[in-house]
Amino acid sequence: MTKPLRRRLVAEAVGTGFLLIAVVGSGIMAQRLSSDHGLQLLENAIATGTALAVLILVFAPISGAHFNPFVTLVALVDGVITRFDAMWFVIAQVVGSCVGTIVANVMFNHSTFEWSTTTRSSGRLWVSEVVATLGLLLVIFGLVRSQRAFIVPFAVGAWITGAYWFTSSTSFANPAVTVGRMLTNSFSGIRPSSAPMFVVMQLVGTALAVGLLRVLYPRETANA
Fold it and tell me: What is the pTM for the complete model shown?
């Protein structure tokens, strides 16, 4: 039975908020504990990937644990969610993302509200966001369409952990996360002027994912 919309929105907001706490908080902690940039990235990646897997396990039975407007968009294309519900999902995700970042700032004695000054603007980063988003959506919906949704939490956590390392952008792959990370002037931040192109490239990755999913996992052969 579909859960009431209010419950699903709370799950999306809280889950996305905790995701940003994991991303931003572990980034700040990594900076404080390690001087080596590679070790900082490793710490940030492991904390984010493992936290994301757990959050999906907790909230998937309520809302599907999208935590990402482009996951919601593909679900809309698939007919899994209505336009009305999708609109509110995206709002809840963005609000949760911003609140989560603010909480992380407060926990580590940063300014409650602060804009990132970290510029992330180059072709290699934009291509990375296409790759990261495309891969993430293929992992999620490829597993769902092939009747293996039970391993999505672990697969998504593993993908994000790996993508931190094999993409030069460190795999944002999520417009809500991108917006939230504008609000921290720390290891995980992104300058507001850099964010729009990240979102555009994530949309490109989403469009490619929709096309590939139709080729690789067409509805009539989803069980193959």
Answer: 0.95
Q: Locate tokens 């929105």: which residue? A: 9
Distance in angstroms (rounded) separating the CA atoms of residues 120 and 73:
25
Task: Give the helix/strand (H/E) hosting 105.
Answer: helix 83-107
What tokens were used for 212?
């590939």
108 near 148, Cβ under 8 Å? no
CA distance 53 to 55: 6
State the Cα–Cα distance between residues 71 and 21, nearest whole angstrom: 20
Amino acid at 18: F
Residue with token string 């290891």: 187
Residue count (the chain): 224
**Are the beta carbons of 164 and 41 closer than 8 angstroms?**
yes
CA 209-210-213 angle, to 5 degrees, is: 80
Residues 105-131: tens digit of each pLDDT? 999 999 998 999 999 999 999 999 999
Q: How many whole angstroms separate alpha carbon 179 and alpha carbon 23? A: 13
Residue 78 DSSP class: T
Return the structure tokens found at 197: 């192109």
